[in-house]
Amino acid sequence: MGGIACETGLTAMLAASLGVVAIGCATFAAVVNAACFGTDHVHDWHWRCRVEQRPGEFFYRTNDFASLGSAVRGIVGGLLDSVHQLHTTPARAWLPVGVPREAHLVVWEVLCCLDRTRTARVVADQLRGDHEATAFATQVDEAIAVIDDAVGEALWYLHDTVTLAQAWTTKLAYVDLETRVQDTLSSLRNCDVARIAAAAEVLPQNVFAFITAARDVTGTGLFPWEKAEAFSSAALDFGGDARTDTDEDDACHGGFS
Known about the structure:
single chain; 257 residues; mainly alpha; 3 domains; 79% helix; rod-shaped; Transmembrane protein
């Protein structure tokens, strides 16, 4: 009996130790994964990180829907772009707080629905080649069409939401521009340009009066511009006399004739 009790106690202790080790490993893995979750997803677009290995578990990428056709991939791109714009728009501060998150959840649900149509689309392609399964093919096609129509409608509504946010962003930009223009004009009105021009106008007059007086006192002669003015005035007087002589000569000739 003592041996059995000893073996039982040893087994229990070993099992407890293994349980502690398992719990420790799981806890360590969870901590590592949680620590890497925010950084591991930062990477180039052409490769997947650990949190993207299974599409739909944490993330969806546009390429995850490439096999569903270009039309579906285009819709997915439009949905993701709409969510991104609602999260980053300058108008977000003016929107209801929950709008970006609600749009995010709507798009997530839409992507999940599209993801579930993968098998249905494959089955539909297979049934189209079977003439005896025409009824089944029609049923599957109709079910897919219902989902596609709902997805397209969701994209339309999201597009309208983004358009409204963009319109308000444009309005905010115009208001900001108008405010800055008014502030700029107000600062310009504080410049008394008439007074400045009047103050500048008397400067050369005052300096001219002083330097001409100094010239007269020192006897340094005329300034270059004064000499030029004097020369022009003398040439004008001489030209006037010459024209008078010419006129008189013309009159004499006229008399002789």
